[in-house]
Every structure is written in C-alpha cells, then in structure tokens.
Amino acid sequence: MENFRDRYNIDRLKSLYNEYSFKPIPTRVTFIDDNSSFESDPNFRPQTLKISYQFRDTYQVKTSCYNKIYCWDQSSGTYKNKGLPEEQSDVSLQATSLDGKRTVYLKSKSDSKSSKSEQFIVIYDKTGVCTTIDVKSLNDELQIIENLHMSSFVLNEDGNYLLCLAEIQDKSNKDESPSVSKEYNINSHEYKQSWGEKFSTIYHTSIALIDLQKSKCILLDKVGVSLCQPFFFKSGDSSILSIGCIGFKEVPYKLGLIYCTNRVSYLFGAKVVRDPFGSTNVEPEIYYGDSADLSIRSPRVYYSNGYDNKIVFLESNAGGAHDKAARLQYFDVETRKIRTIIDDKIKREVIKKEDGTVSYSDIGPIFSSGLPKNCFTKDGKYILFDSETPFYRKSFAVKMEDHSVQMLDFADSTQIIDVNHDWVCAIGSSINQLPLVYLGKFSESNTKMQIVDDRQVRILETISFGMFMLPSKHYENKYITAIWTSPKEMVNKSGPIVIIPHGGPHSHYACTYLQSVALYNELGLKTCLVNYVGSTGIDQEYVEALLGNVGTSDVQDLLDVIQYMITNHHADKDRIILNGGSHGGFLVTNISGQHPEMNFLACIARNPVIDISIMVGITDIPDWNVVEALGVKEFRSLSEIYPRNVDEMSQMYSKSPLAHIAKVKVPTLLLLGKEDLRVPFPPGLLYHRILKARGIETRCLVYDDVHDLYKINVDFDCFINVAKFIEKFIYYNSQ
C-alpha cells in the first residue's frame, strides 16, 4: 500500500485540490435556435446549445466562467462540441428575452482611482452590440445587487424592459467632526441592520425597472419592506407594464435570510405606465399573504405568445424549522384566489419489502429552494420542478388538472435548468459522476433524456458507493438514511472512515457530486454522509420530529450509523474521524463529549454551534435557537423568540457540546470564520481554549470568511490542514 507520508505530501495535496477545483461544472444552458423554428415544426429538435461552465481557478484565486457550443449531429444522433471554449469575463448577471432575440449583461469593474465598483448594462441582439448603459447615468445613487444568492435580472418578452434588484446608496457627505462650519451628521453611528449572513451589506432592496431603449429607470419601492424576485405578468392594457415581486418585512427588525425558507413575506404587484416613465417611485400593493404568517418564494408566470395572469410559487408556513416542506400554489391575479397544486402535508410512505428491507415511496412533498426559471410545458398543463427525496434530488412534473405527479428519472440526482417548447434541459450527477447536461422532450408517458456533453471525462472510476436506511431508536416508523463511499480497492477491506453529518439541521445529503468526498477518496478514506431524523427530503412530520430534541436524538442517530458502518461496511473502529460544519459541527463535537468510549481518532468542526444559549444573543437567526432547543413549531412574533427564563436558557446549554466538554478526549481541529454572522466564532474559540486548558490536543484556524468557509484560498487551506490533521493520527494508528 502507498506510504501514508507520500499520500499526504503537501505537494500532492496541492495538486489534488487544484485538479478537482479546475473540473468544470455546467451552470447555465442557452437555446440558440430561433423560436420560429420551434413554432413552425412541432418535431423540431434544438440544433445548437450554448453551455456555460464555471471552475475555481486556484492560481488567479477566482471563479472563472466559459461557454461551449454544442451542435446536433444527425448522423451520430449526438451533440458535438464545436470550436474552442470562449471565456466569459466580468459578467455578473445576464438575461435573454423570451423571444430569444436579445441578451443583456451586467458587467462590473473597479475604478482604479476611487476603488469603487462601476456597473454597466451591455445589450446585444442578433446584429451585435446595441448599446451600453452606465448604471450611474440612470441614477447616481443606484447600485444593482450582484450577490448571486439575492440578485435578479429579468427581461420582458421583447427585451425592451429590464427588472433587477437594487439598493439606493446614501452619498450625503455630512461631517462628523466638531467643526461648526459644516453640517453635523448626528446619525452617523446609528446601528443599521443588514439581512445577515452573506447579505451583510444589503439593508433595503428595491426593484429597478429600466427602459433599455430610452435609458431611463424608475424604482418600485415600499417603506419597511425589502422587495425581491421580480417578474412580469399579463397586462390588459398595452400601455401598462404589470410587475410582481416578493417582499420581506424589515420591521421591527430583520432575521437572516439565506438558507431560511421560513421568513414572513408577501406577494406584491404594481402597474407602471410604459411611456412616459414617471419621475417618482412606484409603491406596489400586497396581492397575497397579508392574512396569515406565510413565507412565499420563487414566483413564476406561464408564457405562451404573451404573459398569463396566473402565478405559481412555493409557499411555507412562516416560523418553525428554517427549511421545511413547501406548498405549490396557483394564484389568479384577477380574482385574487389561491389553489393548492401540491400540499406540504403529504406524508411519504414507508414500503416494507419481501426481503425484510424498507424504502420510502418516490412521491412526497416538495423540498426545494426554488422553481426552475421556466417551469411550464408549452401548453401550460404541467409544471416541472425539483425536490429532495430520501437519497436524491429528483425532477418531477405535476399535472395542473388533477395534481398527479410523475418523476423524470434520468440520473441519480437532477436539476432542471430550463424548459423551452417542451424541451427540458437539466443537470444530472452522482457521487462518482461530475455534473452532466441532459436534454429531452417532455412526454406525459416517458420523457427520455440524452447526455449533451462528454460523459467519459465526467466519471470518477475509483469511487464505490451505496445507501442504507436504519430505524431510528427515538421515533416509531422513522428511518435514518445514509450514503457510504469507499475507494474501490477498499470496499471489502477495513479502513479509516470520515463520518459527515450535514448542517442545518434541516438540510439533506443527496447522491450527488461532492468535491470534498472525491478528495477524501483520493486520500484512501471511506466516508459516510448522514441524514438523521430532522433532515429534509422525507416529509414535514419527519422535519419537525427533531425540534426540541437536538443534542439527543440526532446524536443517537449519528452513533447508530457509525456502529452500522463498523459492522457492515468495514469501517475501522479504531480509525473513525468526525467531520461536520454548523449543526454538523454541533453533532460531531457533541458526540465526542457524550460518547468518549468510542475513542474517535479525530474531530474536525467547521463553524460549529458550541453553545445554543450563547449563540441566541449573537446570531443573525436567534429564532433558530428557540425552535431547535425548545421545540417551537409555530410562528412567533419577534418579541417572543428569545428564551424567557433561566430554565429555557439551561435547556439550551444542556443540549450543547459545551455541556459535555469535560469528557472530550479526541484531538479536535476547529475551522472558524471571523465574518460568520450565522454561527459567530467566539464560542468556538472558547471551546478551543477549554480543550487546551484540559490538555486535549487541539488546533484552531481562524479565517477572514463567512459561515461556509468557501473562499477559494480559505477552502484550499482548510483542505490542506484537515488532510494533515487526519494524516497525523492515521499514520500513528497504522504502525
């Protein structure tokens, strides 16, 4: 066997990380053919596709993007790449009109003199560049939001009007010095609350409506509400633009938005005169959501030779678990009536097989952050969407008429990118397959999908994997799901294993490509990805079962999976490594204290929740602490989300890893982000200091990064340090 010192050599680790970071991931597919080709021939197959890829360039330390053209080859019955990749630089956002005749890009560059970002809207049509608009020429205080988790960039059907998410920056230059000759800014130090993790510079958002022909702009704005996710819908008057959007309450104060599908929000709408644009802001009105505490997201409008006035969107009850099952709703703007297409109360069935094993049924409620940008079939009879399932992320179609659901099963885990004239473009991947682009024409009976790009270079031949279900000891008729991986040569041999519970806790590991797992495989390590009870992908009852039980049932689930892996999948009981981030970090540090008898080899925790009772006062989502530790399932007003007495604070502490630190003996590596607003790093430092004081081997690395520690240079350093930390203990335990 290869010597451990060679396997974990720094140069080899650097080479491995670079190799996998440069593997391109498809992110966007554009249909190049004119709409007229589809309209004139119902059997027309897309002839040309532009696929956008991105990779993490470790030398330039940035995410780079490029496009490749694939053309249909009739003789071989496949799509073939034409020409060389074309780099796409400086493009922050882009959109193509529904008629396919115009594409608009947002490009940014830094002003070398002022170090400020300059933004330009660049418009292309079939003939080339139409025009470039300096965003400051529209409004000197306008800043288009480029954050990929919150931005929007939407063209109307003919590409003449653009909707985007924007902020108005206060550029008033008031003095803060005691000088009596200048106007003093008395409010310069007043606390200003952002939208939290990853949105730390976003305070209040408006919708910018831009007339691209006349280079004019007006804002849709509402005091006390941040507007986002804009869209066009049908207008009965050709001189009027009908615009909808989602709005999040800002008062009395904000709660973090990212990774949270439980925030109170509303569906808004507004009518705007096309010509001439007014000079004042337009205030939208609430169309839906003000009669209950709801969380609404991902509005989509059916389009066929014009917009419809019926909107579909995902809806959840506000409050409670931060990710949960969603309802698929169908809203009529004219009548203001709502109809549920798929309910969030669907319970996934447990199927007992003849061989004594069990499985979950294919169909359940929707677990998804959003709908595809085009989710309707051409006739409007079906809506296509993605959803987490017990082991996968799958694509589905629901029939509007009878609400029947069918699965589009063409890869282990899938994501629909676009739907154009019933041609479905999607991305599929697996544990041992990098993402591939698939294309197929939707069929009510059997949608057949074909791989577009090169499959041969996307398969990871050295990885074996499988899945299993275990009954939970805490809950009747509920099962833990897990995915194991192993280097092929180690499948039937005893070997070291990395146990990885996900964060959230209401999140989910799917059988999809994960770079971290591929890298562990290269290091000769088995892994096990654990979906404990409380994970998404099953049903709402399964999610809510964990509320109030963190630190107990999830820890037991994790322990049961570890023991199962030792018994059934050749995990070496003396070389078990724990690795988790956020709530996953909460679990690995918790189990290391609660079960010291397991003699874990090492524990790696990334921005872990160490003490829920401390975190409640410093996180951007204080409601999380009450929900998870105290079992609050319903929506609570902001004045009631904090612990109300010593007993509740004690419960929070008792469920936390810090309560068990006196029993910890496993060497522990902590990876912390100084800019983390979700799980701020001071409790992690406290945990590190206490371990050091007790003489337990520990390291703590602190980075200038946020909760996910995903900056390229940070992720690189984390990988190197984690690998060397693991090597130290595997090496000495293998002598």
Structure description:
With 735 residues, the chain is of the alpha+beta class. The chain has a domain of 203 residues: Rossmann fold, CATH 3.40.50. Helix content is 17%, strand content 37%. The protein contains 13 helices and 38 strands. The radius of gyration is 26 Å and the shape is globular. The model has no long low-confidence stretch (mean pLDDT 93).
Give the tags:
single chain, 735 residues, alpha+beta, Rossmann fold, 8-stranded mixed sheet, 5-stranded antiparallel sheet, 17% helix, 37% strand, globular
Short description:
With 735 residues, this protein is of the alpha+beta class. The protein has a domain at 463-614 and 660-710: 3-Layer(aba) Sandwich (Rossmann fold), CATH 3.40.50.1820. The strands form nine sheets. It has an eight-stranded mixed beta sheet with strand order 31-32-34-33-35-36-37-38, with helices on both faces.
Low-confidence spans: none
Q: Mean of residue pLDDT?
A: 93
Largest sheet: 8 strands, mixed
Q: What structural class is derived from the secondary structure elements? A: alpha+beta
Indicate the CATH architecture of the domain at 463-614 and 660-710: 3-Layer(aba) Sandwich
Strand order of the biggest β-sheet: 31-32-34-33-35-36-37-38
Full CATH superfamily name of the domain at 463-614 and 660-710: Alpha/Beta hydrolase fold, catalytic domain
Family: Belongs to the peptidase S9C family.
Domain Acylamino-acid-releasing enzyme N-terminal: 189-451
Domain Peptidase S9 prolyl oligopeptidase catalytic: 517-710
Protein name: acylaminoacyl-peptidase
